[in-house]
């Protein structure tokens, strides 16, 4: 999944990437859908690509809605949503607050720490 994600992030079709992630959901270990989504968004952000990170999330929401599904309701997905909004506003103090509040969720994967700081 990581290699495929790297390919998509360097490409120019976040909606196709969203489709692949939606298709992947439910096929990974239970409770890891949110990790795959967060990792994908953070990969875009680490490249300074806020636009495609947002397009990825929007594409996933659209496709899940049409399949009568929704994004996982986890603290990690909530963190990603707030992070995208924070980066749009360039609000570093809010970022620090988010980071502190959702630390237990983002600490689940050691890669997150590195990618989150690269996204700033």
Automatic annotation (TrEMBL):
Coiled coil: none annotated. GO terms for biological process: protein insertion into ER membrane. One of its GO terms (cellular component) is cytosol. InterPro entries: GET4, TPR-like_helical_dom_sf. PANTHER family: GOLGI TO ER TRAFFIC PROTEIN 4 HOMOLOG. Belongs to the GET4 family. This is Golgi to ER traffic protein 4 homolog.
